[in-house]
Amino acid sequence: MLLITCPWCGPRDETEYHYGGQAHVPHPETPADLTDEQWAEYVFYRDNPKGPFAERWMHSTGCRRWFNVLRDTVNYEVLAAYRLDEPRPELPQAGGNR
Amino acid sequence: MTSTPLPEHPDFLWRNPEPRSSYDVVIIGAGGHGLATAYYLAKNHGITNVAVLEKGWLAGGNMARNTTIIRSNYLWDESAAIYEHALKLWEQLPEELGYDFLFSQRGVLNLAHTLQDVREGMRRVNANRLNGVDAEWLTPDQVGEVCPIVNLSPRTRYPVLGGTFQPRAGIAKHDHVAWALARRADEMGVDLIQGCEVTGFLKDGDRVVGVETNRGRIHAGRVGLAAAGHSSVLAERAGFRLPIQSHPLQALVSELHEPVHPTVVMSNHVHVYVSQAHKGELVMGAGVDSYNGYGQRGSFHVIEQQMAAAVELFPVFARAHVLRTWGGIVDVTPDASPIIGTTPVENLYVNCGWGTGGFKATPAAGWAFAHTVATGEPHPLNAPFALERFATGALIDEHGAAAVAH
User: Fold this and answer.
1) Which of A44, A50, A76 lies nearest to residue B233, judging by beta carbons?
2) Interface ipTM
3) Residue A98 scores a pLDDT above 50
4) What's the whole-model pTM score?
């Protein structure tokens, strides 16, 4: 069970949250201009890295707010939790093993 | 059920050759699908200058971690075709490979607990029959006849309202399947190379011409990717993306028991799937963990939910003990159907996205993927499962029939 720190409520068990997949995926700015391939990218393609991953979680049994978590997908360590209006935090050694 | 002894086998079923500098075909991943692909490349297409590269040990990934359920009762025509082709191959493979891997056609029961389950199940039975797949709709009493230990009380939280039954479905001994395929592929000249991790791809423009590995550079005319949970990682190294998310999927076994469970029972709604292995362990599968992960382990609360469902459905299991739990990494696609075909990189082919249900498809995946790699064109069985479907919108939505929550 993961221990995730909600930016508003503090550390809580994973079972209080719902997962929302990759974070920082912006909606297309000009949707009408997208090709089918570009729509496919937006709708179906998400990063799937082995290592640090910025992802959305929702505190569904708490404050019910979305926020972002930086988590390692190999050892599942939660590296950071931050609000939606905050940028992805820099890791000491970005994108690699710590 | 427990009376059949496991077959004796020799010390070595395959050579362990050093990798050569060049092959006609390199397959990445010596799990069930990679081995089946190599077997059918040699058998159906006469291509034997083949290496199967495995970063760990042979069949040590999901092939060693699945719950060995084999069935073909999928909803859509495209899925029924490929999974039923697999089931027909399973029926002939023990004799063809000369290896009794204890394929036991004891049937699979998919329980319905809600009105929606009932409607979906009846629809699927009808779709299966139209596709020549054996399927029956069972009333709760008939469920009790097939599997007497299922709790049919109307007072449970989600009472059993009926179920679909595929009599030709069943289980097999997964390790032995891999060893049987490996032995025959090896005999026909395929090099099975363990401890050989692909770290990069050699390309000439948009065409792949080989792979970089921790054991040196290996040139290849064609490369087939059969790396399950690590498909995204390898695709990225090759310079393209896949619509895949890797999730942990857990399973567990109990200690050995006398035969009590005559079939395979799956329940989407309360979510557990159970069979009893030949030796006597109860084998149970859980749902995927919600988060992406490569750690080959999941969260314990997922196991807890699964056990709660198992004990409600099978009160007789209440005093059984969990002997061990484990996790594998499954490659989940948006429509719960696999991706088998060409990629944006010339001469590089992909077989992935089987998610939570790849074991049952092992022979057909190998059959179709070998055809694709050998000819450069998809087989009619895998043509609908092209990567392009995510742009055309021709998805093959099998979330209902996939039967594992994800």
Assistant:
1) A50
2) 0.93
3) no
4) 0.95
